[in-house]
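I am writing to request your help with a piece of structural work I have in hand. A protein sequence and the structure tokens that stand for its backbone fold form the material at issue. Please examine both parts with care and let me know of anything in them that strikes you as inconsistent. The record follows directly beneath this note.
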Amino acid sequence: MNPNGGKQEPTDPEDTVRMLELELMQQRASRQRAGAPYRGLYAASFIFLLVIILGALLAFYYFFYLGGLDQARARNNPPSPSATAASRSP
């Protein structure tokens, strides 16, 4: 008799192995079902991270290779007339 008051343990070693395999398969199945809701979250976070990295690379390319930084500086600081050009008069 089982001292824990639970299931009866089979006396045959083959039955014991079968019961153990059954319990392990049930535990494995329950773990796989428990992790399933997070697969979508993992995929979404990976895609979000990929979009952020691609956006940073595109911004780097625009500002440093296409001259976007120079255009932004020119808009913020319009060229002022030089003092030498204004002082010359014929």
In short: The mean pLDDT is 78. Helices lie at 13-35, 37-65, 68-76, 83-87.
